[in-house]
Write a structure and sequence with these properties.
The chain is mainly alpha-helical. The chain has helices at residues 2-9, 19-151, 158-182. The protein has three helices and no strands. The chain has a domain at 2-129.
């Protein structure tokens, strides 16, 4: 009511604009609204749709990358497990080869030892025979010298010496064999 009273008196209310200004403001608003609705709003929606698509594409890419990374990780773990199995197999193979080599080296050492022992026995037998032969000659010479002194004649004849020595040593060997058989 106060507003009507003020109008009647001719004074204008500062809160209510004049009608021509109100009509011009509404027409200007409609033009700006129409321009924004027809030109600017589709561009804004287009940019928003592109951003939404880019974000969704980025999320899909991230999911695909994550799935690929997971697959690579599984492949890596499988390769690592295979490598561990291979290393264990190689380690086992090396241990087996080492054990076989030890057995082979022991056998070779045993063979060489047997050869050395056999060679030693052969050498001992050869040395024994040589010593027996040398001893036989020395004993024979002493026996001939002693027999020559007992008989009173020289037994320098080599053939006679050999026969005398052989008879004497054969007699010794026979008596040694009989003594061993009696035991």
């Amino acid at each position: 009511m106060n507003a009507l009273v003020l109008m009647a008196e001719g004074k204008e209310n500062p809160l209510i604009p004049p009608i021509p200004e109100l009509v011009i403001g509404l027409v200007a608003f409609a033009i700006v609204f129409f321009f924004l609705a027809k030109k600017l709003l589709p561009n804004i929606n287009k940019v928003l749709d592109e951003r939404r698509a880019a974000i969704e594409g980025g999320m899909e890419k991230a999911e695909a990358t994550q799935a690929e990374a997971q697959q690579v990780l599984e492949d890596y773990r499988a390769q690592l497990a295979d490598a561990r199995h291979e290393a264990a197999r190689l380690r086992q193979e090396a241990q087996e080869q080492g054990a076989a080599l030890i057995v082979e080296m022991r056998a070779e050492g045993q063979r060489q030892r047997e050869e050395i022992i056999a060679a030693g026995h052969t050498q001992i037998e050869a040395d024994r025979k040589q010593a027996a032969h040398s001893l036989r000659q020395d004993v024979g010479k002493l026996a001939v010298d002693l027999a020559g002194k007992i008989v009173g004649e020289s037994l320098d004849d080599h053939a006679r010496q050999s026969r005398t020595i052989d008879r004497f040593l054969d007699g010794l060997e026979d008596s040694a064999t009989k003594a061993e058989a009696g035991r």
